[in-house]
Here is the input.
Amino acid sequence: MSVVVHQLRATYAFVERNANLVKRYWGWELVWMVYSIANSLSVSYIGLGMEQIGGSENVDSKYLVLYLVIGTLVWRYLTIIFYWITEIISIERWEGTIEYTLMAPVRRLVHMAGQTTFAVVYSFLFTGVILVVNALIFDISLRDANLFGATIMLLAGSFSFIGVGIMSSIMPLLFPERGQQMTHVVIALLLLVSGVYYPISVLPGFLQVLGRLSPAMYVLDGVRMTVLEGQPTNMLWPYIWPVLIMGAMLIPLGLWIFKRAEVYAKRKGRLHRNG
Here is the structure.
C-alpha cells in the first residue's frame, strides 16, 4: 500500500508542477486562449457565411455553425492534450530541468501519468471556456444535446491521443533544435484526414482509409451525434470501442518507443538545455 501511495504522490507532483508552470507563464496562456477563441470563431463564422457564398437560402446556417463549432472544440481539446505531452520536453529544456526529470528515480509510467492527467484536466477547462464564448456569440442552444455522452466520448478519445502524444514527444527529445516543430506534421496529417471541418466522405479514397485509422474521426462523429442529434450514451459504443482499442495499443507502444529514445538521448548526450 505504501508503494501505491508513493507512486500516486509522484504522479500528483507532476500535475502540480505543470499547474505551477501555467501560473508562472499565465500571460502566454492568456495569449493562447485569445488565439484559440479567435480561431474557433473565425471557423464557425464560415457557417453563417455559406448562405451568402452559396447564394442559396436553403442552407441551414445554424446547423453548419454548430457542426463547425463542435469540430473546432473537439479538435482543440485533443490537440491541447497532444501538445501538453509533446511540449513538456521543450519546457523542461527551457527550464533547465530535463536532466533531473529524466534521471530521477521515478517510473516513466508515473511521469507520463502525471503529464497526461494534467493535460486532460487542463484541456477540459480550456475547451470549456471556448465553448461558453461560442455559445454566447452564436446563441447556441444545447438543451437537447447529450452533454454527458459527449464528455464520455471525449474521455474515451483522450487515451488514443495520449498514446500519439507520447510517441511524438520523442521528436523534441531526439532533435533539440527543431524537434518540437516536427510534431506539427503529425497534427497536420490528422487534421487533414479526421473530418474536423468536413465529413471524410469528401476526401479521396486513400485519405478516407487513413481517416478511419484516426482516433479523432471517431471522437468527432460521436460528439456530433450526441450534440446535433441528442444520441443517447448507450448508442455511442460503435465510436467508443475503436478509440479504446487504439489507446490500449498506442499508450504501451508510446511508452516503449519513448524509453528507447530516452536511452539513446542519454547515450548521445542530448539532454541539454536550450535558451
